[in-house]
Write a structure and sequence with these properties.
Number of strands: 12
Radius of gyration: 20 Å
Oligomer: single chain
Shape: globular
Strand content: 15-25%
Largest sheet: 8 strands, parallel
Helix content: 25-40%
Distance between the termini: 43 Å
Length: 289
Amino acid sequence: MEETTVRIGDRLVGPGQRTFVVAEIGINHNGDLSLAKALVDAAKDVGADAVKFQKRSVDVVYTPEELARPRENPFGPTNGDLKWGLEFEFEEYVEIDRYCKEKEIFWFVSCWDPASVDFIDRFDVPCYKIASASLTNDNLLRYHRTKNKPIILSTGMSTMEEIRHAVEVLGIENFILLHCTSTYPSKPEELNLRMIHTLMEEFDCPIGYSGHEVGLATTLTAVTLGACVVERHITLDRSMWGSDQAASVEPQGFKRLVKDIRLIEAALGDGIKRVYESEIPVLTKLRRF
């Protein structure tokens, strides 16, 4: 199917547009606002278009038994200590909103429950991201739609039947679908990048890629295959504490990723054969008529 474009802020996202690059901060800030701002700085410096965070109502998303489960972490001895420790509250998001506007970079969030959608809606973000884990949560999908913002949906750990149902629930308008494999980090042989074309053929919306692999080559391949959105986790140091750090990209690598994405965009061209001015001297010298 022919894809359409979606407007995120002042940017058009879709086929023929510049690849929209999202640096996912996620929970790599480890509950530290100064680290979050340093990651925003890094994302801006490498040329990303947006940063993304995650928001959960901890006592809604997790059961009391799950929160009480022993899990040693920097915030305490239980899984609940960890989950609460990683959550930013209103004051922190006020500062994140201010700081991203100052740095002139978009920010948005994956919300894991309706209360978190309401929480983030106070900041008038340009779009919402729905994580792969929430793809089958019809109520949450529908609630996102009440905010009348563009929606980006990841498709990790989902069947085609589940993806089709989620698209039916959300509708195709103002909608972007990301191919994804939800392992951290992902094995190359499980990335299945040809799914990008499969999604393009079935859904009349922009198709992108959310990657959790080690390295950059496969993400660049996704762009070559036509992904118009690229999302990768960003970290200052992959050896830092945190469950997502190992599947993240450090600033130097992220900068190379964005540079190579822009190079690929220039090199792909428009598919119309032409003789370039730079070829004329070579043609004159070498061609025999």
